[in-house]
Write a structure and sequence with these properties.
The structure holds 2 protein chains of 2 kinds.
Chain A lengths: L6 H17 L2 H9 L6 H9 L18 H13 L6 H15 L2 H13 L4 E4 L15 E5 L2 E12 L6 E7 L10 E6 L6 E7 L5 E12 L4 E2 L6 H36 L1 E2 L2 E2 L4 H27 L6 H29 L9 H13 L5 H10 L5
Helix pairs in contact in A: 1-4, 4-7, 4-8, 5-6, 5-7, 7-8, 7-9, 7-10, 8-9, 9-10, 9-11
Chain B lengths: L6 H17 L2 H8 L6 H14 L17 H14 L6 H14 L2 H13 L4 E4 L15 E5 L2 E8 L10 E7 L10 E7 L5 E7 L5 E14 L3 E2 L5 H16 L2 H17 L1 E2 L2 E2 L4 H29 L7 H23 L29 H7 L10 H11 L4
Parallel strand pairs in B: 1-4
Antiparallel strand pairs in B: 2-3, 3-7, 4-5, 5-8, 6-7, 9-10
The chains are: A alpha+beta, B alpha+beta.
Bound molecules: flavin-adenine dinucleotide (2 copies).
One flavin-adenine dinucleotide (FAD) sits at the interface of chains B and A.
């Protein structure tokens, strides 16, 4: 048993850490967040130049086939910087779906660009009625000559506003909640009938809702076998969950560091507030919540790329559940112990706190994953 | 033991309901019920209506234009007005500085300020907290030095709620640095239009401009604006804080927020069924409703003991902690209820006059922001940690 990163993984993490430290001050992040793009094109370019956008891809695509732990090293550092770039959406999730479901032509068309960072992918699986259930799909894809006609609505597509390709799910058969009958399409947003409404998110990023109004796509837009996408979606969502958990750990680390510093610095009643035992114990709880989350993020990374199984499903559900709960505890406790300052937009803690809550609303919240885990409980 | 209202109390409740049915403007009620933003004008419009009815100043003696409600009547008003979507009255004038002026101010001050509070001519804000004086309020540093007929005030206040709308601020200022910190504080009324005062917005994490920093540079304040005696301000400040705390449990607000949550959960879907029928989510709602039922009764018990001649003391601290925890849980659940829609932050959809299409619906738009905004409840008015310190000291003798 060895919980240490190996040398390459450590180097990878250090590289990202250096980059984030150099480029992602709190003030700059606020500026990036307010631009139309919503992140730093320059930082994205640097990620690409250092080969970081290629990490999980094969050598031909400029990567080294990095697994869960490599991705974890990158994501945790991006989390520490509260980075806004669509690494998760494009490199992990979008790239993962196309890589698993796509045929050679489609991979050629998209993956090299995604790996090099020249192209950005996003993923549109949720719908107004779906809550977090990705098998709940009402968007229809009807056969139309050689291709398909898409109608429906995809919602809260993070990074969708600037994506060159959006992987969307649509139903080619079956009822709203059937796993069977779901298909995936690689959609270019300039296709006629695709309408995007872009908005900021509560945690500083950008996303969009996508209305599909009689959108014609060719047969070459279909990713994988018609009607059989549910397994691919589940598998790749799992990889994305592992990556998101790793990001969360980075966010929590900084949240805790900031709070601990504040407890030592801030004086009331002539002593540092960290002298008050009730705050000491809450800080200890924040630390142990972080460690619970870190353990689960490590476990999640270790199964992210393994073959699908109930064990993999359980681990990923458990990880996202722990991260959701720990994140909310750290977010709320940190604000509380900062007092009024914790509520201020101009101080960085609040933005970490918001990201932690935001993460709980991405790819399923703690309740959703608790239920999923319970449905997979093993009789001992 | 009688848990029911008397006939008189029931009659009063009917009167309240009739009044609200007839007089509460619908646009205002809609904003309140859906957590939309209220403008200064909204507040003033409603205040006029209340003042005409004679129901604006419920803590004041009748001779100053108040109405003498029993604690139970106040409670009935609180419950009904929350249910109807009455805007929470901005407390700084009517419920904070006025009781202090009435109890400790001189006749001239009463004649000057109370009518202007009633008429809405003055909008007050509270200048207690400073960057270095939050929980440890007695360590305020803003200095007031007497020079002839004036005090010269220098320093900074912060977290001043709605200070951007205010023309008057009541401040705790340091008039004596030689004595124990509680003994050198004075209570000063300051016109915000006096030269040397600068108000700077503080934007909170939900993007809202609700609080401010207020800077004082050589601000000349006439000595007649001192309330009571010099250096006795701490006594007045604490008197005011007990007034502040009793309202902070927010039972009525919780009840209103809970019915909003239930309406929301009856419309949002999970697995094709309303969330209200979802086992996990309905249990979460049930738990907070049960807690609220208990807190509401605790609140009534304390109210009843006040009516019987007792004083709400440290008990109100306990209520504040419980009450704010409940309000925070409800806004947590409201945010959870909208699932992925908790992420979009579309500020224009939070205004009532928004006419565009909603991303989800008009209910969902403000809920995340509202959740974050409500984190303040356990921080202000004496943080929940401070309230627990009070309970353990005053009630438990620890
Ligand atoms: C089943 C059992 C087996 C045990 N076995 C052993 C053994 O094998 N060898 C041995 O030496 N001892 C043993 N102990 C004793 C054990 O170590 C003591 O009970 C323990 O150290 C607490 O001391 P106490 O009981 O005197 O409680 P106290 O120290 O009086 O504590 C009472 C309460 O006050 C709290 N408290 C005390 N100080 C603080 C503080 N500074 N801050 C916050 N809270 C505080 C405690 O957490 C506790 O809740 C055993 C006890 C039990 C119950
Ligand atoms: C939205 C908002 C509106 C406000 N409006 C006003 C206003 O209109 N006018 C005004 O004057 N003020 C206002 N305040 C200020 C508010 O009263 C203070 O924020 C509050 O008193 C806490 O002070 P602080 O923020 O300096 O936190 P601190 O006092 O620095 O507290 C930081 C943390 O330490 C804890 N702590 C401090 N002392 C102890 C102790 N002895 N034991 C245990 N824990 C302790 C606190 O509970 C908190 O968790 C407002 C605040 C907010 C957030």
């Amino acid at each position: 048993m060895d919980f240490q990163l190996n040398e390459e993984q450590q180097m990878l993490q250090d590289t990202v850490a250096r980059l984030v430290r150099g480029e992602y001050s709190f003030e700059k992040r606020l500026e990036f967040s307010e631009t139309e793009l919503g992140f730093s094109a320059d930082f994205w370019r640097q990620l690409s130049e250092l080969g970081l956008t290629a990490v999980p891809f094969s050598e031909e695509l400029g990567g080294f086939g990095g697994g869960g732990v490599d991705v974890q090293s990158v994501m945790t550092e991006l989390g520490r910087g509260l980075c806004l770039e669509p690494y998760l959406q494009s490199v992990i999730f979008g790239g993962g779906l196309i890589g698993q479901a796509g045929n050679d032509n489609q991979k050629e068309q998209w993956l090299a660009g995604i790996a090099s960072g020249e192209l950005k992918a996003a993923v549109g699986l949720q719908e107004p009625q779906s809550f977090y259930d990705l098998n709940n799909v009402e968007t229809r894809a009807e056969k139309n000559g050689e291709g398909y006609l898409l109608n429906g609505r995809k919602t809260v597509v993070i990074g969708g506003h600037c994506a060159d390709v959006i992987v969307v799910s649509a139903r080619t058969s079956g009822d709203t909640s059937n796993a069977d009958g779901i298909s995936l399409f690689a959609l270019t947003p300039d296709t006629a009938g695709v309408e995007r409404r872009t908005y900021p998110t509560i945690d500083g990023a950008k996303g969009c809702d996508i209305t599909l109004n009689n959108v014609h796509v060719g047969a070459d837009a279909l990713l994988g076998e018609e009607g059989k996408a549910a397994d691919v979606i589940e598998y790749q969502t799992g990889r994305a969950i592992a990556a998101l958990c790793a990001e969360a750990v980075g966010v929590m680390e900084v949240s805790n560091d900031l709070t601990l510093d504040y407890l030592k610095q801030r004086k009331q009643f002539d002593v540092p507030i960290g002298k008050f035992q009730v705050l000491q114990h809450r800080m200890v709880d924040m630390m142990s919540e972080l460690e619970q989350a870190r353990s689960m993020a490590i476990l999640a990374a270790s199964v992210a790329d393994s073959e699908q199984s109930d064990e993999r499903r359980r681990v990923l559900a458990a990880a996202k559940n722990v991260v959701g709960r720990a994140g909310q505890f750290i977010s709320e406790s940190g604000i509380q112990m900062h007092g009024g300052i914790g509520m201020s937009w101009e101080y960085n803690f609040a933005h970490y706190a918001k990201r932690l809550i935001g993460i709980n609303h991405q790819l399923g919240d703690d309740d959703f994953h608790l239920e999923h885990y319970a449905s997979l409980l093993q009789a001992s | 033991m009688d848990m029911n209202y008397t006939a008189d109390e029931l009659a009063f409740r009917d009167e309240v309901r009739t009044f609200l049915d007839e007089k509460l403007p619908e646009d205002i009620a809609t904003k309140v019920k859906s957590f939309k933003k209220l403008s200064k004008e909204d507040h003033q419009r409603w205040q006029k209506i209340l003042a005409e009815k004679g129901w604006y100043a419920t803590h004041w003696p009748e001779e100053y234009g108040g109405v003498k409600w029993t604690p139970v009547q106040k409670h009935i008003w609180d419950e009904e007005s929350c249910r109807y979507g009455v805007p929470r009255s901005i407390p700084f004038g009517v419920n904070m500085v006025a009781p202090v002026i009435i109890k400790f101010g001189n006749e001239e001050q009463k004649q000057k300020y109370l009518p202007r509070i009633l008429s809405g001519e003055d909008w007050w804000c509270q200048g207690y907290s400073e960057p270095g004086a939050g929980s440890d309020l007695a360590s305020v540093k803003t200095r007031a030095v007497r020079e002839g007929d004036h005090y010269i005030v220098n320093g900074q206040k912060t977290w001043t709620t709605l200070g951007q709308h205010a023309n008057m601020i009541f401040c705790l200022v340091r008039t004596n640095t030689e004595v124990k910190k509680q003994e050198g504080i004075s209570f000063l009324l300051i016109d915000m239009n006096t030269p040397g005062i600068t108000v700077r917005p503080i934007i909170t994490l939900d993007g809202e401009h609700e609080v401010n920093e207020v800077f004082f540079q050589d601000v000349k304040v006439p000595v007649e604006n001192l309330v009571g005696e010099e250096d006795k301000g701490w006594t007045y400040a604490k008197y005011l804080l007990t007034y502040e705390r009793t309202g902070l449990a927010g039972i009525g607000l919780s009840k209103a927020a809970l019915s909003h949550l239930k309406r929301l959960a009856s419309r949002r879907l999970k697995n094709g069924k309303p969330l209200l029928e979802d086992p996990t989510f309905s249990q979460r709602i049930a738990k907070v409703e049960i807690d609220l039922t208990a807190a509401a009764i605790s609140n009534l018990r304390i109210i009843a003991s006040v009516e019987g001649g007792g004083m709400p003391g440290a008990e109100s601290s306990m209520l504040k902690v419980k009450g704010t925890e409940i309000r925070q849980s409800i806004s947590d659940l409201a945010r959870r209820a909208i699932g992925p829609y908790a992420l979009p932050f579309v500020e224009e959809e939070m205004n009532l006059d928004y006419e565009g299409e909603f991303l989800s619906d008009s209910d969902a738009a403000p809920l995340s922001a509202y959740y974050f905004n409500n984190r303040k409840l356990s921080i202000f008015g004496g943080s929940n940690e401070i309230q627990k310190n009070i309970v353990s000291k005053m009630i438990l003798g620890l």
